[in-house]
Amino acid sequence: MTRLIEVSQLVKLFPIGGTSSGRRAPRQLHAVDNVSFNIDTGESVGLVGESGCGKSTLARVITRLIEPSGGDVIFQGRNLFTVPVKHFATSAERAKIQMVFQDPTDSLNPRFTVFDTIAEPLRLLAGIRDRDQLHARVHALADQVGLAHELTTRFPHQLSGGQKARVGIARAIALHPKLLILDEPTSALDVSVQAVILHLLADLREQLGMSYLFVSHDLNVVRLLCDRVIVMYLGKIVESGPVAEIFRQPRHPYTQALIAAIPGTAPDKKHSHLDGEPRSPIDPAPTVCRLVGRCPIATDQCEHAAPALRAISAKHQVACHYAT
Amino acid sequence: MSQISKSEATHYPAPSPPPHAGEGQGGGNLATTPTRVPLLNVENLSIEFRTRSGVVHALENVALSVFKGETVGIVGESGSGKSVLAYAILGLLDPAARVISGDVDFGGMDLRHATESDLQEVRGRELSMIFQSPRTALNPIRKAGRQIDDILRHHGNVAGPAIQAKTIELLTRVRIPDPARRYHAYPFELSGGMCQRVMIAMALACEPALLIADEPTTGLDVTTQAAIMDLIAELGARRHMATILITHDLGLAAQYCDRIVVMHAGHVVEVADTDALFRAPRHPYTARLIEATPRADRSLRSLASIPGNLPDLRRSDLPACRFAERCERRDASCDAPLQLNAPEPNHAVACWKPL
Fold first, then answer.
1. Do B290 and A265 touch (CB under 8 A)?
2. Residues in domain ABC transporter (chain A) (predicted)?
3. I need a labelling partner for A80 at 20 to 30 A (CA). Which of A242, B26, B150, B192 fits?
4. Domain residue spans in chain A?
């Protein structure tokens, strides 16, 4: 497989409560802290972690909805960050990286009909102006995501949650993207609808040969749709590897707790807890492992040297001193 | 329209009490008699909402019984009436709601006909609730600790300076780190998990006999969810408190409930012990719901979906079985008025063609 996107040493800091008088340097919230990973063509990668771990920020930096503080994103051999923000909105790369947003209601313009919503990227980026051509394309996309044609004249408030999710997906695939970033696409849906949308996403990936970056906190959903998982904790990647391997034998204590916390239909009341609250992401000490304070196996070493991501097998990496 | 729903009304026999309910949680030494009185008994409850676009038949002939010390899960898709049922029990229904029929008995008290002042005495003391979103359920401009104080003061368990001490003790018990400092925190200064713990501390302040937890962990991370649920289960077991867990997450219900009630479009469609329900669901809807839930031993290929949507509850021609239009087992016999039958002990199902 060829490499589609290469994210290297990506950093996103948010300044907090900076003083304008300059007496004190503003404190920095480390949302994404030196994150590197790759996605191959046709590969589906899951990005999991608790809320506040920086997974949505990472997705937004890659799509350039927010600007990075440092690092590079190489997409098909071209560094995205060399394109000025002003021109990115109309660049060819923009069409190739598309996103499906978390809340199907909030991410649709309430005053756009379904037709307008799906036609928007076609008008702006593909430059299709001809009415008949637009109609044909929109209807073909509606068919592709299983949306009845008569629904295209409706407004978002006239649609159900599942239908809105389909509109968001149709809009995202309108330009035949190479990489589709899905930010919790099913978290607002009921299980019955979720199952339908997951099947749809799997089928579309096969038909269109897209790569997925699937951001979610639901590990059971990630497992169904992804080849590889990246686990983030407080802005850092703590573990990454093939889905089956991570689920069968998680190496990082955080991943272990995350997997143990999934409520199962097989009643098993024992699970390893992460006690306490996460450390503050504001100006974290660079030499302390981020999990210290919640980690069941932390020692002095973890407070003096932050573990780096290291390979424990060809495809499996983990950032823990004690993972074997 | 109310006449229609009345003429359709059929009597649902209350499901027979499970022999292991109540005190039997830990050991089988308590030979319980089948005539044990449930702590909460809801029978034949029908509720409508009058809206501008028509009358919504939100609940129809719903029956529910909860015994002392047991955890009962109520599961179903959004819009199936789970929260309406909880609000009806607590007497917190919207003014647009009308209770058509039914009884709500809580420890011998008739909650449906109770006065507001009687209800206020019961709510928070004997019967308390954890609301769906902790951030909006807490008062944003009052310190978290003070909000717990209010409950303690109102129900007169403690007085004076002892109140604050008791609140801090409660915050400690729900494992809020640094409780003396967090007492003075406003809800916006606390994380979602922490706000949820404050809600739990509040709900448990007066050691209620029944706790209703409405999606207590929706929007929280799995790790926080596990901690919160373990906390509720542990406190429940220690105080012999009954819990109603309302959730759309079958995995969560499977892990924490003794018995599960499945709702669909305002009907109770199946009631069974948790193990039996997951091992051998009888209602086609329950079976579909279980098959649609992603879990560790399931591939995407084997993930089923449920055809169609919930029927529009404003319709005046709602079928006797509200699942019929989505059901592949449907035939002419499904048009007969529905009953909650018990094909085997402790397993009731409202279906003419059960699995």
1. yes
2. 5-259
3. A242
4. 250-323
